[in-house]
Task: inverse folding
């Protein structure tokens, strides 16, 4: 609690007097507060978390994350939430901004330019933005996700996870306590800087306890493409077999 109060004080104190960015002004690469919902009641500060490295590993099969993922919006005070903050997305958006990432080996598991083999995966919010949680006491980030898969063969609706059965990741900067066969891994909070915003650069968020459901909506007919995707990625995959590691930079401020 003391850490959160100190952070909130630093955000508010450091950010007062900073002019709002005009609609025609390009936002800096980091942080990006350009579409922050600043009119929200009880605003703590704008929030931006951008991935720099990492991977999603499913039963030993790793998909790189790199700079593909961003969580952006605002934090408002809410005493009922862990850490006293509630995340709200920019108006008309989910708060998750993700770029497609290439699935190594494609549909056939072969790293060779075969027509129709390439597969990309794009992280999307599963369900309502109210399911996103950012805890300012522990810097835990909870996300309900689904992965949209794109390939000419698997069709436009192919995805892993859904609004009703999301992939629930609980990313922490501490040490995990996963079910077997995974073993504990540790994240870390990066270097803090203050000014017009409070920044934490070089963070590592980790989770290796979550489960991943099977694919759905892939192809047509008797579900053959679903089965191919599940076989390729080892789905469904129970907790203790999957790992998400995200190296990121986080900023709170921009008032």
Result:
């Amino acid at each position: 609690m003391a850490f959160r109060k100190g952070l909130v004080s630093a955000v508010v104190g450091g950010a007062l007097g900073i002019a709002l960015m005009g609609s025609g002004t390009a936002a800096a690469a980091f942080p990006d507060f350009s579409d922050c919902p600043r009119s929200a009641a009880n605003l703590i500060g704008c929030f931006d978390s951008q991935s720099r490295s990492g991977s999603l590993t499913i039963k030993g099969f790793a998909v790189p994350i790199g700079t593909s993922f961003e969580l952006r919006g605002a934090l408002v005070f809410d005493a009922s939430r862990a850490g006293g903050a509630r995340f709200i997305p920019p108006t008309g958006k989910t708060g998750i901004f993700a770029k497609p990432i290439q699935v190594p080996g494609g549909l056939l598991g072969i790293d060779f330019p075969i027509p129709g083999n390439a597969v990309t995966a794009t992280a999307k919010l599963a369900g309502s933005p109210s399911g996103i949680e950012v805890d300012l006491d522990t810097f835990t980030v909870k996300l309900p996700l689904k992965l949209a898969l794109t390939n000419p063969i698997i069709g436009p609706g192919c995805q892993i996870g859904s609004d009703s059965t999301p992939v629930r990741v609980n990313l922490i900067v501490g040490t995990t306590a996963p079910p077997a066969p995974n073993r504990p891994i540790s994240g870390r909070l990066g270097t803090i800087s203050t000014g017009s915003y409070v920044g934490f650069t070089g963070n590592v968020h980790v989770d290796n306890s979550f489960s991943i459901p099977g694919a759905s909506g892939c192809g047509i007919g008797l579900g053959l493409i679903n089965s191919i995707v599940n076989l390729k990625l080892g789905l469904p995959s129970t907790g203790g077999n999957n790992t998400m590691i995200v190296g990121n930079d986080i900023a709170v401020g921009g008032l």
Remarks:
- The first helix runs from residue 2 to 15.
- The chain is about 10% helix and 35% strand.
